[in-house]
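Researcher: Structure prediction, please.
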Amino acid sequence: MAEGIRHRRPAAWRTRLLVQVRTLARTLARTLARTLAGVFPVAVFALVLLLAIGEWGLLGGILAGTGLGAAMAWALDRLIARYRPARWAAATTIALLLALVVLSLW
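Model: Predicted structure follows.
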């Protein structure tokens, strides 16, 4: 073996790897929160539409529910886009609902 050739990596690789893992975890958390929060206005729209159909019948419910649901979904979308705590609250709500759906399958 040649003299002066190191066969082990320097200890700094662990630090770089740890920084990369932390950055990846933060990025995934933000992406997941954005994705789940994006589902929330759609779920609210669907809920308002179903409640309106149940309350006012098929035709009246579709007409009123679409207008009310779209207005509420738009307002929630603007709120979620503007305030980070609202994004996390919406993401947490959707995540809990998805967990309940998955757990109810067993």
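Model: The radius of gyration is 24 Å.
Researcher: Thanks, that helps.
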